[in-house]
């Protein structure tokens, strides 16, 4: 479903790049992206991720990502890290005094693949809790939940209802008509975890 897993050193480097990007973005310093010539080949291949920022107590502080791999992985991490700090519409931009409190998590996505089904009532049973990230599409609307969301919403029916709400439609739309559904998996790592 995707290229081989990153090494601990590559994961650590991506986390360092994410923190550097956030610190530069928040403090208004030079935001030039990393030089790909200085990075391992795996980080220069096309890749896509979500960067999640939390405060102590696992309080969400920002989460931004993409679904299509259009940039080198290192650049994708760099851009989404800064965006998670400054551009998540649910939160005020991260302040300089919060930088030392932030905990960074990176979720590297596999390519989303369509999930085939015929009737809406089949959908919950086709999902793999704690493994599948899910993308719902309804016309021009689209929303996704990372696999980590299953930890907070373990029931597939409730999961789908919340995802519909995130998409901006009624929570029971997934029961009323067939939506476009894609699933993906993630390689997740965060500060303090890369050598485990």
Can you walk me through this structure?
With 196 residues, the chain is α+β, with helices and mostly antiparallel strands. The chain is built from 6 helices and 10 strands.
Give a quick precis of the structure.
The chain has helices spanning 8-27, 41-44, 73-86, 123-126, 156-167, 173-176; strands spanning 46-47, 49-55, 59-65, 71-72, 103-109, 113-114, 133-138, 141-145, 180-184, 186-190.
Keywords:
Dna Ligase, domain 1, 196 residues, 24% strand, 4-stranded antiparallel beta sheet, alpha+beta, 6 helices, 2 domains, Glycoprotein, Type 4 Pilin
For the residues shown, what is the average pLDDT?
Answer: 93
Rg of Cα set: 17 Å
**What best-fitting shape do the alpha-carbon axes yield?**
globular
* Strand neighbour order, sheet with most strands: 3-2-5-10
What profile does the largest beta sheet have?
A: 4 strands, antiparallel
Number of strands: 10
CATH class category label of the largest domain = Alpha Beta
Kindly name the structural category.
alpha+beta
- What's the number of structural domains? 2
Binned strand content: 15-25%
CATH architecture name of the largest domain: 2-Layer Sandwich
Low confidence ranges: none
CATH topology of the largest domain: Glycoprotein, Type 4 Pilin
Question: Secondary-structure element sequence?
Answer: HHEEEEHEEHEEHHEE
Count of runs of 4 or more consecutive helical residues: 6
């Amino acid at each position: 479903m995707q290229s081989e897993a990153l090494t601990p050193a590559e994961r650590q480097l991506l986390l360092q790049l994410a923190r550097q990007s956030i610190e530069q973005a928040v403090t208004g310093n030079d935001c030039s992206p990393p030089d790909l010539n200085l990075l391992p080949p795996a980080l220069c291949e096309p890749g896509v991720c979500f960067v999640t920022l939390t405060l102590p107590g696992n309080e969400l502080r920002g989460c931004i990502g993409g679904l299509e791999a259009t940039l080198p992985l290192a650049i994708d991490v760099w851009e989404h890290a800064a965006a998670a700090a400054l551009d998540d519409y649910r939160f005020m931009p991260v302040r300089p005094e919060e930088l030392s409190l932030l905990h960074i998590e990176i979720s590297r996505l596999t390519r989303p693949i369509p999930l085939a089904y015929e009737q809406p009532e089949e959908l919950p049973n086709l999902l793999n809790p704690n493994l599948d990230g899910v993308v719902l599409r309804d016309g021009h609307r689209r929303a996704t939940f990372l696999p980590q969301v299953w930890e907070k919403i373990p029931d597939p029916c409730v999961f789908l209802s919340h995802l519909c709400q995130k998409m901006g439609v009624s929570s029971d739309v997934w029961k009323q008509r067939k939506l476009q559904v894609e699933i993906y998996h993630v390689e997740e790592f965060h500060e303090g975890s890369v050598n485990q």
